[in-house]
Write a structure and sequence with these properties.
Blueprint (H helix, E strand, L loop, with lengths): L2 E11 L8 E17 L4 E7 L12 H11 L8 E7 L10 H16 L10 H12 L7 H6 L2 E7 L2 E6 L5 E8 L5 H7 L6 H20 L2 H7 L6 H4 L6 H11 L3 E4 L6 E6 L1 H17 L4 E7 L6 E2 L2
Helix pairs in contact: 1-2, 1-3, 2-3, 6-7, 9-10
């Protein structure tokens, strides 16, 4: 096989209470990547479609940094190189795991092209190196669900322990992206380095409640647990009409609502597609009323993660 085309989905990370340790994959939205073998060793980005701001320098782009991390861990290094053609369908700075989609697509596609020397979970640390370039921190709550699909918990970073969670099949997400950009690195700088014990206790309880609610398909418990007392009170100030969007989603029937990743995207979890579509309409009406363009997407949980297109 001389070339491959792959897809890696967008993701919702943090999921309110699970800052840097929880995330899930979305359907029908993500990055596409074509990887071709080249005679000359090395990594080259030939084209980036859908974004004019991303660097083609292999040392500066998350996809080639992630790919290089994989290559460095091969027992036998290839005597050929790779060319990458990226189609960005997740906007940088959207809060939907844009850099993670690219990183995940790179390591997944490269692994497939090389005959799968690594298991799926073994690819996560390589993709995390792309996240290090994007945000300064190699977090896994976006790349793991983008690679593996489903609902993911990062139980530990040292050592890395990625856990796939059970969740009800009728769980849907409604995501709205107000058309502004918030860089992950900038959003992280806003957060406190230390938190009060009472806030930590609240957050721990909600994480446990969310995992339990997902496993038991207890929608009321899922809703009660979708609270964030650490990042949302600070980052919410950066997002136009965030509080109104949250109130509108809850009033329309969402189980819970919070910031997706670093923002500005906002997500709501809903019981069933019908409720999710109602929330989508409320988001559209809100942002239309304030004159701000927005992108709204309704999705079940993506169970596949990264996949081969051809």
């Amino acid at each position: 096989m001389e070339s491959i085309k792959v897809f890696a989905p967008a993701t919702v990370a943090n999921v309110a209470c699970g800052f840097d340790v929880m995330g899930f994959a979305l359907r029908d939205i993500g990055d596409e990547l074509i990887i071709r073998k080249t005679k000359e060793p090395g990594l080259v980005i030939s084209a980036i479609h859908g974004s004019e701001t991303l660097s083609k320098n292999p040392k500066e782009n998350v996809l080639t940094v992630a790919a290089q991390a994989l290559i460095e861990h091969l027992d036998s290094k290839p005597d050929f190189g790779f060319e990458f053609e990226l189609t960005k369908k997740v906007k940088p700075g959207s809060g939907l795991g844009s850099s993670a989609s690219s990183s995940a697509a790179a390591v997944f596609g490269l692994n497939e092209l090389l005959g799968n020397p690594f298991e799926s979970k073994e690819l996560v640390p390589f993709a995390m190196e792309g996240e290090r370039i994007a945000s300064g921190i190699p977090h896994a709550d976006n790349v793991a669900p983008s690679l593996l699909g489903g609902f993911i918990l990062i139980r530990s970073y040292e050592p890395l322990d990625v856990v796939t969670l059970d969740y009800p099949g009728n769980l849907y997400a409604t995501v709205v992206h107000p058309q502004i950009e918030i860089k992950t690195a900038d959003a992280k700088k806003m957060l406190r380095k230390q938190i009060e014990l009472k806030d930590a206790i609240t957050q721990w309880g909600n994480i446990g409640g969310l995992v339990s609610g997902l496993a038991k398909a207890d929608y009321e418990l899922i809703g009660r647990s979708l609270q964030d007392v650490i990042a949302e009170p600070i980052r919410g100030m950066l997002i136009p009409s965030f509080q109104k969007a949250k109130e509108s989603a809850l009033r329309t029937g969402a189980l819970g609502c919070s910031i997706s990743g670093s923002g500005p995207s906002i997500f709501a979890l809903c019981r069933g597609e019908e409720n999710a579509q109602k929330v989508a309409q409320s988001y559209e009406e809100l942002y239309k009323s304030i004159g701000l363009e927005s992108f709204v997407h309704v999705s079940g949980i993506n169970t596949k993660g990264a996949e081969v297109l051809r």
